[in-house]
Amino acid sequence: MQAALRAFFMLLFSLLSLLGIAANGFIVLVLGREWLRYGRLLPLDMILLSLGAFRFYLQLVGMGHNFYHSAHVVERSGVLTQQFFHLHWHFLNSVTFWFCSWLSVLFCVKIANITHPTFLWLKWRFPGWVPWLLLGSVLISFIIALLLFWVNYSAYQQFLIRTFSGNMTYEWNAMTEIYYFLFAQLVIWSIPCSVFLLSITLLINSLRRHTWRMQHNSHSLQDPSTQAHTRALKFLISFLILYVLSFLSLIIDATKFISMQNDFYWPWQIAVYLSVSVHPFILIFNNLKLQSVFWQLLLLARGFWVA
């Protein structure tokens, strides 16, 4: 890839990441301020605050890793550094996947019109479980990431004793991560993904049936209730698309199919971080509290520049 085009995609990646960092930071600041002010948060706000904080950290780690190894790509000397990054990478991605899953479950139990006894029981109990589910997700993700790091590093040290070639070490380590740890990553990420798909499918189907009934019961498409359900459907479908794209991009990224020396590395990094950067804006503009503060800040900024 030509240097100018590579620089363009690096700049685009940087702008996308900075927008995502700003959006996630905004969510953390607004909800964190409310938490400090009132000493408590609603279950939805707990999930949004936690998701924003971990995504904020994830994007900082991703930017730091990409630009550091882009500057040292010729040296190939950062095997331990790479493993340390992967420790954070696996941990943060696993946590954010779980948080998105709990967000979809919360939406489902609050909005879906399902009369099954098990669902009604879950609808009553789930909001009280949210703090413990968030804490449990963090602990489980950290333990699994630490185990993967320890197994990978131990295996690498054993191989290092038997070889003196830096290139062989690098290739072995990459092949180990692909063939020995890809399956483990796939299983780990598939569990929250399955929870997400189940809850979001139930919710979309419930909203779709409810919207269809309203339209066939002499309700106009301009009816406020019908419009609200249509907006909710659009929000959920966009949430579903971004979640699936994020899951698939992480699985492909774990195969090392596109290395840092590849011409398409930076466009691919844009695809990997797209969901983490775009989804916070969808959350902001579909949450009355966050949306209100966002527009207030824009009006203040506009008045400052005009003055």
Automatic annotation (TrEMBL):
Locations listed in the record: Membrane
Family designation: Belongs to the G-protein coupled receptor T2R family.
InterPro entries xref list: TAS2R
Gene: TAS2R41
Its membrane topology: Multi-pass membrane protein
Spans traversing the lipid bilayer: 6-32, 44-68, 88-109, 129-151, 178-204, 232-252, 264-285
An MF annotation (GO) of this entry: bitter taste receptor activity
Cross-referenced CDD domains: 7tm_TAS2R41-like
Gene3D superfamilies, alphabetized: Rhodopsin 7-helix transmembrane proteins
Protein name: Taste receptor type 2
